[in-house]
User: Fold this.
Amino acid sequence: MRKKTAMKREIVMKNLKINLWDLDITNKKLAVISHVNPDADSLGSIMALGLALQKNCQSITICVCDHIPNALSFLPFINTATNYHLTESTQYDICFVLDCADEKRLGESQGILDKSHQIINIDHHVSNGFFGDINSVNPHASSTSEIIYELLIDNNITITPDIATCLYAGIVGDTGNFLYDNTSAQTHYIAGRLKEYDAQSQLVSYHLYQNKSLGSAKFQGYVLSQFESLCGGKVAIFSITLELLQKFNVSIDDIDYVSSIIRDIEGIEVAVVLKEVDSEVTKVSFRSKCDFDVNQLAQKFGGGGHIKASGATIFHEIEQAKKMVQKQLEIEIRR
Ligand code: AMP
Assistant:
């Protein structure tokens, strides 16, 4: 079990080079896990690290704490990842928690933290709470996949074509296909190196951007015709109810692009998408394309993320959640 108080916490903001061999990973029972509502970076990074460790360690479990979106089921060996609930009673020597800003983002899988002797927190969110025993957090990295690439290189671990594809998918996903300003020279360099390691970049582009269902494409048209603008046209807001999903025969995973398409409209500075989870819970996605810090806005509702892409869960029904967000936005935008 993890001795939280006795453990020395090594808090490092960036560029902590973890020496995996000093941690004696070969003989230890390892787990790799990421956050709920997994995206390309969370799944790409856990698969890449998991596959890399498999070659060098006796025991490694790649855990997911939610279902895997269809669009990401192409990731190599993703079917070898286990749902945390199936291994709940297992104790681990080391648990690598990837792309996860805080413990709450593990949802019902938070138990893994107490069942693990040592937590290694590897992340790129500016809101990261340093909950690990070792924290390698670099908010300047485009993605957790970028950090995992450097970890593998620093530890002389071979990057196979499958590992390269997972990392490439994570980088493409979190940079919006190299569009966002988290895309640095280093990001392009790493993407180039991954192609040299035979990352299947076409496969990634196809599944992430060129394989939308017809229902999802029609939904896109509906969103563009129905979104509301607030705060003098600077904010675009759209609510996705369960009824609407049913009407278009789409799942919430099929339409994770909604916040980006309304953000990308001329004059819009902030996009807000509310998603009904049930009658008491609403998930909110915030996006910005200017100086407005949506991480701070999300933190007002107990969430977090990045300056230009953040999220929160509000424990109210969707209409009430919308009013709460609208009120806060009016205060913040006026500042
Ligand atoms: P999403 O809007 O769900 O695509 O999330 C955008 C970004 O915010 C991602 O980097 C998420 O990891 C992060 N995020 C989403 N929800 C939360 C939350 N409740 N707490 C902290 N970070 C979050």
